[in-house]
Write a structure and sequence with these properties.
Elements: E1 2-8, E2 13-19, E3 24-28, H1 35-43, E4 47-52, H2 58-61, H3 64-70, E5 82-85, H4 89-93, H5 97-102, E6 114-116, E7 121-124, E8 127-133, E9 142-148, H6 149-153, E10 159-164, E11 167-168, E12 171-172, H7 182-192, E13 200-203, E14 209-210, H8 211-217
Parallel strand pairs: 3-4, 4-5, 5-6, 10-13
Antiparallel strand pairs: 1-2, 2-3, 7-8, 8-9, 9-10, 11-12, 13-14
Length: 226
Amino acid sequence: MHCKRFPLGTLWTNTYVAWDESGVGFIVDPAEDMKEILSFVREKNISIKAVLLTHGHLDHVGGLKSWMSLQHSNLRNPAMPVYIGAGDAVMLRFPDGNTAKWMECDFEGMESFSTVKDGDTLSFGEMNVSVLETPGHTPGCVCYLASSEACVEKGEDLRLLFSGDTLFARSVGRTDLPRGDSETLHRSLVRLASLPDDLRVLPGHGPETTIGMERAHNPFWPEEEE
């Protein structure tokens, strides 16, 4: 399983492309103009099967219109599935107009998408993606835990956690924005604390980290007895 990070847009949101050895892949959190990513997937001959959204904030979904247009599709009938946590569905249908204007983003929302819930599993080629509900930054925040069947068969534990704005390197997502809740986010961090230390974490902004590094250094990390 391979993964490449693309910091894009006004807020340098991390958009990710993940793909397996057969060239089947998916995109996480398309941010603004997606031409660079389209060029990359064509160069690598990656067949993108879905778009996964960690939450509904515009800096993480605003590139959907660009991506669909580059795929000769549209937001009413997208060429591939789009997934988002059920709690953020309304944000995808009706994005905040003031934020869109500030970001100079022309994404006006979409209706044709699928919602995911805790425990759902999505499969793309040799990759399986488990959905972990981690609300707090927004009500519908999710993390995606991706694993590779090929690595499992080889006895390797290669997994990636796409954490969106739930968990960053040395920080966590803001809860002072509309619909954010600090106590709910804390409970989500307690859940992530059960994951193994060597698990790679790919956040929505900033550099890659691991669960172990955040356990040791993140000032927002929950106490072990919790």
